[in-house]
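Q: What structure does this chain adopt?
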Amino acid sequence: MKSGGLRLYCSLYLMGLQNTPEKGCWKASQSDNSEVNLRYCDLTGSIIIRFTDGGISIDRLGSSPSMKYLMHESMILNGFLDELHAIVYGGDISVENRLLTLVDSNAIDKARGAVSFS
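A:
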């Protein structure tokens, strides 16, 4: 994994989702160089995406997110997983030059299975 390039690419992608699926429903921010936070407009939850040399982790902050948050979170996370899939498998870039390669070829499908409204 080329963490710097991957983090930049994914951060730009996630920043572009602030109005998805409704205008102003997400506010994106970076607290440091290793994570992107997406806070939902009703403040019931946030998505925290962390980039480390060992991988990418996604956590939810919020003890009782609204149903609308959960539906919108699923849309965001499925789109993010689609982007990761494109990074890993898309185009004609050699494996050694890709921003991300997977140790487990089913990792994206497993992650998609953990999303609330897949």
